[in-house]
């Protein structure tokens, strides 16, 4: 079962076994100058064990650990050849993650076919296989939007900035969808600011001594998408469960099959979170999740309930309405759902219309055609966004124009 606050997606059940033996030549290499360190075993999860300052093959020097995910660790490295900092994802030496990394490389190369990707998605600079670890070299980016929220003790971003993030996010997703790719794991952790620079401004939350808190704001609003390890090709068979729980679309939970719209749902959830500071659907259980969706957005469309898979029918009474609150596992669960406000109350009105449109488009598209391509609605959303952007810019003398402040 997923832990209640876990933000990590439960990965699909892969079939691979552990890693094979390391290439014999590597064992003999001794750490000296620009050479590789002595061979050492991976940790029990298959992660590469390293010390800071060591080499990752002769070209890259390891400077720090930038992040960790299900697939592996991301290390900040110095590229001796280009003389620039890079972020290298060192994938766990387990067959299933190695295989998934090769798919990620495939997707990244596909994305890189068009120049447009440079400003929308993280750029891949290359990859190599080192001591049975696939290493993917990326341009180094700044912190994720989640890192920023956390650093600010979950104080929300200003609405002007959220709108700017939303516009870029929709552009990136539209670009992926044009290439018939579905990200499937959009979340604030997978959206990185391009720059780490920030400014401090007075925040809204005060502490117990009534002292004013400060909050950090990025100097530039430019963002890029990362983590294409779960990206699916539209025309390939899809696994039944995708997305990290909080950002998972209703059609996935109901077993209706999923396609491009599941990314759009995640975008809606992300925008609300950036405006409110907290994940919209903080749950780890399907029925509670559906009840939360109904609380925020109104009843699930009848056509979706009708087609729910046999295993999802148990969430409904006589196949017609959600078995809620009768089916709740605890009073606490009922309270958690009740505590949620309608979308209108949750987010400023300027974002409300956009999010409402996004989340409802997900429903509408299912009504029309489950594999409907999302280009048309996305262009429409972008139009709405730029229209509201202009209006608001006039009114409030917005500082987030041109992606920098
Ligand atoms: N290009 C980059 N520049 C800076 N930091 C990065 C970069 N790529 C990844 N990171 C950091 O490393 C973390 C893990 O990266 P990523 O999400 O790609 O790994 P993962 O193993 O696929 O994660 P998940 O378990 O979410 O699938 C990110 O959340 C981010 O903090």
TrEMBL record:
Q: Which reaction does it catalyse?
A: L-seryl-[protein] + ATP = O-phospho-L-seryl-[protein] + ADP + H(+); L-threonyl-[protein] + ATP = O-phospho-L-threonyl-[protein] + ADP + H(+); L-tyrosyl-[protein] + ATP = O-phospho-L-tyrosyl-[protein] + ADP + H(+)
Q: Which residues cross the membrane?
A: 345-365
Task: Give the Enzyme Commission number.
Answer: 2.7.12.1
- Basic residues: which segments have biased composition? 1-10
For this UniProt record, the keywords arranged alphabetically read as follows: ATP-binding, Kinase, Membrane, Nucleotide-binding, Serine/threonine-protein kinase, Transferase, Transmembrane, Transmembrane helix
Residue stretches making up the Protein kinase domain: 60-381
GO function terms (MF aspect): ATP binding; protein serine/threonine kinase activity; protein serine/threonine/tyrosine kinase activity
Any one cellular-component term (Gene Ontology): nucleus
Coiled-coil region list = none
Region annotation (Disordered) maps to: 1-27
InterPro entries, A to Z:
CLK_kinases, Kinase-like_dom_sf, Prot_kinase_dom, Ser/Thr_kinase_AS
Q: Which Pfam families match?
A: Pkinase
Q: What class of enzyme is it?
A: transferase
* Family per record: Belongs to the protein kinase superfamily. CMGC Ser/Thr protein kinase family. Lammer subfamily.
Name-wise, this protein is: dual-specificity kinase
Q: Report the source organism.
A: Oryza meyeriana var. granulata
